[in-house]
């Protein structure tokens, strides 16, 4: 092999190593934080077409939004992209909680915000309440799951009792709602199930318990992927914060 051939080969190896290092570095970069601000949207008018959109910052696309509590003005709907449209049919003030979940691997980031829309009476041109951040300050909430790891079998109707211990700063009384749960296998969502659960914090602490039935779709996906771990998560939402309880179900271990 000539010196020229050796030099070319070394150059190619160095180039591939450099590209590979950059790809690994890019892949290891964390997703930018997903942010959504609690605010009052521009006012609507009874009987007049309305269209507005929520603003999101950061996160990994696509981002899906849903209303988890409260009430939209009658006649107005919100799409999964956070677009409000319709013709309101009743004047008044409306407040509701919106949850956004992005596509950041493996579980996705989730945030919540309290949104309000004021609907003016017919014939009035008032601007509605001044846009502002909603009254109460956000809480910092941490969720501990007990147990955090559970050994299971792959048989149908497998169940486990999970307890969530929530603590907050500052030490306040608050109610957090959870719309449902997710089962993730090998980085892919096997199933999301609507299963409402409420946690009440008194003086900064609260506990709630549930019996979880292991998703058959998750068990089937784990078998196809030849993995033994199913990640279960439940998000609790309220007071402009989202906290996640996570449990690892270990199959046959």
Task: Provide an overview of this structure.
There is one protein chain. With 253 residues, this protein is mostly beta strands. The protein folds into 2 domains: 35-120, Immunoglobulins (Immunoglobulin-like); 140-251, Immunoglobulin-like. Helix content is 14%, strand content 49%. The chain has helices at residues 3-28, 216-225; strands at residues 35-36, 39-40, 44-45, 50-53, 56-57, 64-70, 76-78, 83-86, 92-101, 110-120, 140-146, 149-152, 159-169, 174-185, 188-201, 205-213, 229-238, 241-251. The strands form 5 sheets. Strands 2, 3, 6, 9 and 10 form a 5-stranded mixed beta sheet that branches. A hairpin with a 2-residue loop joins strand 14 (174-185) and strand 15. The longest helix has 26 residues, at 3-28. The radius of gyration is 24 Å and the shape is globular. The chain starts with a helix and ends with a strand. The model is unreliable at 3-28 and 129-135 (pLDDT under 50).
């Amino acid at each position: 092999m000539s010196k020229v051939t050796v030099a070319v080969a070394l150059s190619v190896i160095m180039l591939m190593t450099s590209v590979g290092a950059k790809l690994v570095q890019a892949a290891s970069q964390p997703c930018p934080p997903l942010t959504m601000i609690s605010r009052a949207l521009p006012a609507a008018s009874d009987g007049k077409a309305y269209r507005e959109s929520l603003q999101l910052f950061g996160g990994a696309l696509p981002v899906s939004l849903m209303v988890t509590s409260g009430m939209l003005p009658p006649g107005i709907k919100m799409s999964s992209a956070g677009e409000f449209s319709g013709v309101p049919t009743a004047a008044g003030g409306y407040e509701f909680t919106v949850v956004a979940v992005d596509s950041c691997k493996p579980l996705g980031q989730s945030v919540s915000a309290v949104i309000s829309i004021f609907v003016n009476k017919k014939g009035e041109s008032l601007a509605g309440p001044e846009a502002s951040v909603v009254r109460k300050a956000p809480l910092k909430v941490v969720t501990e799951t007990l147990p955090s790891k559970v050994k299971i079998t792959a048989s149908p109707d497998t169940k486990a009792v999970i307890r969530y211990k929530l603590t907050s700063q500052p030490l306040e009384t608050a109610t957090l709602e959870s719309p449902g749960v997710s089962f993730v296998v090998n980085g892919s969502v096997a199933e999301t199930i609507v299963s409402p659960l409420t946690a009440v914090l008194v003086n900064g602490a609260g506990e709630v318990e549930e019996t979880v039935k292991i998703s058959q779709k998750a068990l089937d996906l784990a078998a196809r992927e030849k993995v033994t771990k199913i990640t279960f998560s439940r998000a609790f939402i309220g007071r402009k914060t989202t906290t996640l309880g996570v449990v690892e179900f270990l199959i046959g271990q």
